[in-house]
Amino acid sequence: MEQMLFDDIIQFPDEESQRRYNSLVGLDDLKARLNKESEILLNPQSLAKWSQEKHGSVLPIISLFHSRHPFFIFCGDVGTGKTTLAETFGDHLAREKNLRLTLFSLSLNARGSGNAGEMTNFIATAFHHIKKFTSQFLSTDGTYASGCILLIDEADALAESRDTERMEHEDRAGVNSLIQGLDSMKRDHLPVLIVMCTNRLGTIDPAVRRRAAAIFQFRRPNETQRYALLKTYLSGTGIEDADLQLIAKLTGENKQRSYGYTFSDLTQNLLPALVFETYPNDMITKDIVFRLTEKIVPTPPLNEWK
Question: What region holds the AAA+ ATPase domain (predicted)?
Fold first, then answer.
């Protein structure tokens, strides 16, 4: 059943996930907020303890965190690191907080073939499996040493707004099932985090968006972030700092386009192309990088996401 429901199941800590997480250069602020949000949702008693230690009592503001769904939405343009972070942040959290976490990546087959009840049953079964898995970690004091992360990538395929005229009855029923699953996770206070990734936040059903404890917006790297990434990966090549800054500028917006490179454009297109351009006979030089920035076109943005 797991093989039908989930594309991947990964237990953290995991060395490959750690490598991929660390490769996400330039997302430090977003990572820090995500880790803090995750810690609070997995162990809500940590807020009360903090309030008691710093203020001598549990402040009224802490009550606002009692009714949050354990649910995040990652949204933004293509190639900005959403899925990679969603797949790997559990490793960092597991190492930092000494937790045992398991990632379940929901299969894209969840949409089914459109037969009556197919998508609804698939989603309901997936949530039932997650609840059964996490129930073994039930705690009497509100703290957990184990838990899981449910990743729903390409979420607009499952959570599209029910107000859309072209939506079929089966799709509407599937969204209802998804909302019921989210509500059940909140109600049962289980150690689970649910993450949806989408390139088009505006298409996600409003009721689904309202249930998110936090919506993380991923944007294309700015010049400072591009410079930090280039400095990391081109270390040891002998390219001087001033040239790295110029490359960071060249990979941004210009008179011909209103957008710059995505993280993926840099790490999966430009930098690998640089290696293939020079291997096995030449050295990496700034001139080769400059030439490649003229040839490699950044991925156009998806203008429909809001």
Answer: 68-222
